Amino acid sequence: MKVNKRHSAALSVAALLLALPGCSSDDSGKKLDDWAKGVCDQAQTQVKKIDDANTSISKVNSSGSPQEVKSADSAAFQSISDAYKSLAQTFDSAGPAPNGKEGATFQQNAVSVFTTLSSQYAALKKQVDGLNTSDQSKFADGLKGVSTSLSQTTANGEKALTTLRQGDAGKALAKQPGCQRVSGSASPSASS
Q: Which UniProt keywords apply (predicted)?
């Protein structure tokens, strides 16, 4: 059973950090750009983990055995949760963006957003792990519940990530290759 393609298995960090035309008009932008480069160089590994998890979910045969679907979704949600947790740690370690009070606020928001997303994907994993695979009908009903939870997580996450696309720090991150989505990569649909 596939979730509608408009629901990504995970929010892409690249979508978070980007698609903004980042342009800094002053020399103080250099420090901000250097900070953003450091963050995005580290974030790139986590973006790949999320993309890989999305790919693994999209390759699951929706008519496969319930155990196969459950195992694939569980592993993917765990990987996504771990990646978001690492992103929170990356922003925490990076310190405030070097643009005054706004930088500290941006850092706190980023840590909070990624910590929340990590928790939400851990909850999705727990929900998937609890599915009954011995009864096809119960399993299908359970998948509908996971799909609903995933849709809510996606909507809440997009709303939260929108706040990180704002301001000078968001624009600085948007310019960095490590925070940009690879052109042509598709958002997979979830098997849950």
A: Signal
Q: What is the pLDDT of residues 95-123, one digit of tens each?
A: 999 988 889 999 999 999 999 999 999 99
Residue 123 has, within 13 A of its CA and on its CB side, a CA count of 14
Residue ranges of the alpha helices (H) in 59-135? 66-94, 101-129
Kindly report the pTM of this predicted structure. Answer: 0.81
What sign results for the dihedral spanned by CA atoms 94, 173, 101, 159? negative
Q: What residues have CB less than 8 Å from 45, skipping those under 6 apart?
A: 86
Query: Tokens 């851990």 correspond to what residue?
Result: 122
Fold for domain 28-179? Answer: Four Helix Bundle (Hemerythrin (Met), subunit A) (1.20.120)
Sign of CA dihedral 50, 51, 54, 60: negative
C-alpha closest to that of 97 among 49, 47, 166:
166
